[in-house]
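Appendix B, example 12.
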Amino acid sequence: MLIILTVLLLLLVALALIVLYWVRPGIRYSWMLAASGALVSWFSVLFWQLNLPLTFQLPPWEPASLFFESLSFTADRLTWPLALSISTLTLAVILTATARKNFPDPLPWAATLVLGGLGLLAVLADNPLTLLMAWSAIDLTELVTQLRSADGPQPSEKVVTAFATRLAGVGMLLWASMVSISAGTPMNFQDAPPQAGLYLLLAAGLRLGVLPLHLPYASEAAIRRGFGSALRLISAASSLILLARIPTASVISIFTPFLLLLAALAAIYGGWMWLRAPDELTARPFWLIGLASLAMASALRGNPVGAVAWSCALVLSGGALFLSSAHNVWLSRALWIGMWGITALPFSISATGWGSTMPSFWPVWPFLLLAQALLLAGYLRHAIRPTLRDNFETLDRAAQYVYPLGIGVLLGIMLLLGFGGWEGASRLGVWLLALLGVMLGGIASWLAPRLRILTPLRAHWVRPTASSWMDWLFRGLWGLYRLIGLLSNSFSKMLEGDGGFMWTLLFMVLFISLIIQGSPGP
């Protein structure tokens, strides 16, 4: 019951913010209401750990022949750290909003609270039906909020393309359920058949929400940092939790080495673009690609704890960096703690990241370590560079106290999860590989300002609508879809026009003649 109460609190506070915005737009206490709701919810999730596991299940749905399971949620020592990460990010977005130029603006706060609540439901989903419902709610929320920010047909097309990509992930999860049912067992996360494991991996990959790379937000940097960061990170976390739910036996396949190699190459691409991007907001999609690929590689090695570790680092380390909008020497140095979260060194949150519980494809390890090194070097570069950040001294007195708390709570929880509270805490991990990755990251950081190929991309990449070859690929697929739709509309208009009746008769004659020719003779 505590699970639903926490989520309801976030949703009710969001509803109150929207009502107050409509009834009394200039009310002064909107931020206090949003911060209080996020803080109480955060404390609630923090204290779940004292009584794990927590479960909540709705009554069975009818008919039972169609719905094998009802909506069910579980918070255990594997899902709780990711739920705490999402709750912490939600609180941090509200706290750091005091340093934004659009302060106060309650609508992005309300949307962030809704995303936080739905993200909690997704990471705590205990069966595919519950996860599908949570994913659908997140997708609809994202679609509505982004269409409000889209200005013109081209940005709207990118929103619809991203929505279609996520729907493909939902469809892949449905397909995995059908494969499981055809094998004679209703789909669940504990007993997924081997045939469904790869489909679950594909569902998580499609649902990451990194394609198209640059989605349209409002032109204000404040929206991109606050709500935009929450949207990207929570959506990715709600997808990556599926990696922790896949049984190890379900990912054992002849295709596993090839999928592991593809994940490593994707991680290198993400790390490379992350290092070379001019600022952290432009580089945010590549951060998701890099860390999500490392989480996918952990799942393919039979290490769900490692997948959760990389996912928590994605939210907490990335959130601290992306929410940093005011430059201060001490805050910039504090962001180095976020880099600790992706080192995989002992007692870090990602210490279990390099573990494996089944024979691993060893030729892929150099690629994974190179990807981690690029991510580390890129994080250091973005942390110490004040691009697109305001001067901390120009903030008002209250913001100078509240804003650092928002960054500090993300870094503090990241350190806390490294030492206790879940299955991946207080681990030494594969420290030799982690140390090698850190050394490679140090070399990449030293070489970055000295080699032209490692310097940031040109300034036009700062624009959120910048294109890459991956965007061109999706634009080509979208163009093919539009061409098929145009041909379909032309065919429909031909049938509905003045000659439509004659065309219908012609098709009927052809159809009947084919049937007659194919029928056996007397």
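The first strand starts at residue 54 and ends at 57. The mean pLDDT is 79.
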